[in-house]
Design goal:
With 504 residues, this protein is an alpha/beta fold. It is built from 18 helices and 18 strands. The strands form three sheets. An eight-stranded mixed barrel has the order 8-9-11-12-13-14-15-16, surrounded by four helices. Helix 11 runs parallel beside helix 13 (369-382). It binds ligand C2E and calcium ion (2 copies). The site of one calcium ion has 6 residues, from strand 13. Residues 82-225 form the GGDEF domain.
């Protein structure tokens, strides 16, 4: 194809025609240029809008929509200095507010907590509002920019204090159990320069310290490396529990309970054990709090109830009417279906309800009364007995217990163990026995290790005892062997099954 110069006419074409065509061409070109310019400016505006949108999306991705605080991702982009610390604060109440008043009220509660958090004035921040994030639910992170471990701990206590006061949501009063995990600068951070990686490392360790508060003790904990090992162990327990029940690595041991008057075995307490293939025999003081924190406690309670009622049935079939006591967690009482489950298991094993005692810790029943009371009433209506365990360690008075449908009080073993040496403990035990009887309760002493203590308890009129003096908790088959070693109450042929005498 030959190119035609624009300015020159093609040979043989008349001059005026060339002019007209040239004019038209200029017009077309001008139009095209103008179009191009408009398009370019449009594109520029569009690009600016896109950039703003991208920026907003990036910001939104770093913000929590409900509270306007940073979210976890956003918090990681906050750079900590060489002495920066991180506190993770957990209010552990949102679930309860949601369950009681619905999710909308749960959001109100989270906003109230946020207001307190951003309104806090910590001395270590020289009165500045803290940089805070909502990690999830009612768990928040706070940056403490320039502190040592000691100052971080104090700041965390101030934060907790501020968040602890009761919350009024729709006229309902909630008191959250606030716990704080703190991670401050330490040798384990040595190689990390200030930046997101260091913030992430602090946040992870503050989370580990937070998990450690769930073992009880101080509600504000600073990270130390041994917590990491414990956290890893906890995680193994959490992940391994279901399979352990399936493999029957989890089992129930029975410890006899004897009447102090007639010296007969009247029942047993069922105590959970976990025979872990790698970690060895685990005791409930280690795994029960872990299962309580994850909600898996419901499965443990179901398992222990099932095993205990099966054993009670076996003993009934052999002519022994032994009651079984099963430990129940506060978490079980938060499940409205729990009494139905108990009723179904009693029916399935054909065990009369009065042979089942459910033991609850004193702190458990007093802290969650609103939630627990209707469930306790329904359990009581089934005919089960209810016992307050570890009595004397909590805050509640016996008079307060009268308002609960309980039948038994178990004196905490620390007092019973102390009876041999501490006069004060003898006085406490005597007072509990007397007041318990005044309220019409059966009084149980646990932790009876010495014959002299047993005699003293019998002399005080304490009803029932349990302890190493009689027997340690035994696996089911060992317990049956132990029972067989006892002198049997002869009983009339065909008489109702009775308890067995104990020669000890
Ligand atoms: P607890 O209910 O107070 O149970 C009594 C504990 O005292 C048992 O510890 C028992 O082995 C121990 N003990 C009994 N007699 C004596 C004695 O003479 N001297 C001493 N020093 N100790 C004695 P264990 O089996 O380690 O259980 C610890 C706690 O774990 C129990 O305390 C109970 O609160 C909880 N637990 C056990 N099994 C279960 C369960 O199935 N579910 C739940 N939720 N908690 C359980
Ligand atoms: Ca108990
Ligand atoms: Ca106890």
């Amino acid at each position: 194809m030959t190119r035609v110069p624009l300015a020159s006419a093609a040979p043989g074409v008349a001059q005026p025609t060339v002019l007209v065509l040239g004019g038209l061409l200029v017009l077309v070109l001008a139009g095209a240029v103008a179009g191009l310019l408009v398009a370019r400016s449009r594109r520029r505006r569009h690009d600016a809008a896109t950039a703003a949108l991208a920026e907003r999306l990036r910001r939104d991705a770093h913000r929590d929509a409900l509270t306007g605080l940073l979210n976890r991702e956003g918090f990681l982009h906050v750079v900590t200095g060489p002495r920066g610390a991180v506190a993770v604060v957990d209010l552990a109440l949102l679930g309860q507010v949601n369950d009681t008043l619905g999710h909308a009220r749960g959001e109100v509660f989270v906003r109230l907590a946020t207001e307190r958090l951003v309104g806090v004035r910590l001395p270590v921040l020289q009165g500045e509002a803290p940089v805070a994030a909502r990690l999830e639910g009612d768990t928040f992170a706070v940056l403490l920019p320039d502190v040592d471990g000691h100052e971080a701990h104090r700041a965390a206590e101030d934060l907790r204090e501020r968040l602890l006061a009761p919350y009024l949501v729709e006229g309902v009063r909630f008191e959250p159990p606030v716990v704080v995990g703190v991670a401050a600068d330490g040798p384990w951070l040595a190689d990390l320069p200030p930046g997101p990686e260091r913030t992430a490392a602090l946040l992870r360790r503050a989370d580990v310290a937070l998990a450690a508060t769930r073992d009880g003790g101080d509600p504000v904990r600073c990270y130390d490396p041994s917590m990491g090992e414990r956290a890893a162990r906890r995680l193994r327990l959490i992940r391994g529990f279901a399979a352990a029940v399936e493999r029957r690595d989890v089992r129930v041991d029975f410890q006899p309970v004897v009447s102090l008057g007639e010296r007969t075995v009247v029942g047993v307490e069922a105590l959970a054990r976990w025979d872990h293939p790698e970690l060895g025999l685990l005791l409930p003081d280690e795994f029960v709090p872990v299962l309580e924190a994850t909600g898996q406690i419901a499965d443990l309670t179901s398992f222990v109830l099932d095993e205990s009622l099966a054993a009670a049935r076996r003993w009934l079939d052999r002519g022994m009417r032994l009651s079984v006591a099963v430990n129940v967690s506060v978490g079980n009482l938060g499940t409205p279906g729990f009494p139905d489950e108990v009723a179904a298991l009693l029916a399935a094993h054909r065990v009369p309800a009065e042979l089942l005692t459910l033991e609850l810790t004193e702190s458990g029943v007093s802290s969650e009364r609103e939630v627990a009371l209707p469930v306790l009433r329904r359990l009581h209506a089934l005919g089960c007995h209810l016992a307050v365990d570890d009595f004397g360690t909590g805050q509640s008075s016996l008079a307060h217990l009268r308002r609960l449908p309980v039948d038994q009080v178990k004196i905490d073993k620390s007092f019973v163990l102390g009876m041999g040496t501490e006069y004060g403990d003898v006085a406490v035990v005597r007072a509990i026995v007397e007041m318990g009887h005044t309220l019409g309760l059966t009084v149980v002493a646990e932790g009876v290790e010495q014959a002299a203590v047993r005699s003293a308890l019998a002399e005080m009129g304490c009803d029932v005892a349990q302890g190493y003096l009689v027997s340690r908790p035994l696996p089911a088959h060992c317990f049956d062997t132990w029972l067989d070693s006892l002198d049997v109450l002869p009983g009339e042929p065909g008489a109702a099954p009775g308890p067995r005498t104990l020669i000890a």
